[in-house]
Amino acid sequence: MGTRERLVQTMSDLLWERGYADTSPREVRERSGVGQGSQYHHFASKRDLALAALRHNVDDVLPAADSLSGPGSPLARIEAYLLRPRDALRGCKVGRMTQDPQVREDPELLAVVSSAFTAMHTQWAHALTEAVTAGELRSDIDPEQVAHTLMAVLQGGYVLAMAQGDPAPFEQARQGALSLLRAAAPQTPESLTK
Q1: 3-class SS letters over 31-88
Q2: Nearest to residue 94, comparing CAs of 15, 177, 8?
Q3: C-alpha 95 chain-centroid distance
Q4: Buried b vs exposed e over 86-120: b needs ≥16 C-beta within 10 Å?
Q5: Helix, strand, coil percent content, the chain, rounded in steps of 5
Q6: Could you tell me which residues come within 8 angstroms of residue 73 by beta carbon, excluding any fewer than 6 positions away?
Q7: Any idea where the domains of the chain sit in the sequence?
């Protein structure tokens, strides 16, 4: 890994652990083993390094959403994505940035976060639309609204887990989301007689 990549990876990790406001360029240098001259050769400022690290975090998170599309049952893909292993106590690499006041106040930093959520929403809405089209979800559900709901459940689950220092609230939130999705399946004559 080259010097630039080490700096970006280190800043990426520190953003996830501490946030932008609580990370200093000195901490990045110390953890990465890169000197000050090299750091400023690659990045003129902490903000420039943070932009590269945020983009790196988005590039880490978004490929997982690709599992929402592809062959097979759309609902099975949605369920698999909801249940994929996550470190609930660390939270979302991208979502945690919304809690950082300096990120929220910087339009360019916030735009990276916002665009990631927009891309994620698009993936969710597409998968949910496919599930409706395939008859796996009722036709009266709104995929756009449900996509926002599922994203909010995951992000809120992270917040609750971190607040309590326990992954259980995250697990319960995503199990609740699965229950709601299953309840949105079309009623069959067999299910009505049960």
Answers
A1: HHCCCHHHHHHHCCCHHHHHHHHHHHHHHHHHHHHHHHCCCCCHHHHHHHHHHCCCCC
A2: 15
A3: 6
A4: bebeebbbbbbbeebebbeebeebbebbeebbeeb
A5: 75, 0, 25
A6: 134, 136
A7: 3-186
Amino acid at 41: H
**Confidence (pTM):** 0.87
Looking up tokens 């690290």, which residue turns up? 53
| CA 57 to the chain's CA centroid | 9
Residue 25's nearest CA partner among 44, 16, 105 is 44
The amino acid present at 168, given as its one-letter code, is A
**What CA–CA distance (Å, rounded) separates 187 from 128?**
17
| First-last CA distance in the chain | 59
Q: pLDDT digits over 141-189, tens only?
A: 999 999 999 999 999 999 999 999 999 999 999 999 999 999 999 986 5
Architecture of domain 3-186: Orthogonal Bundle (1.10)
Q: What is the pLDDT of residues 105-139, one digit of tens each?
A: 999 999 999 999 999 999 999 999 999 999 999 99
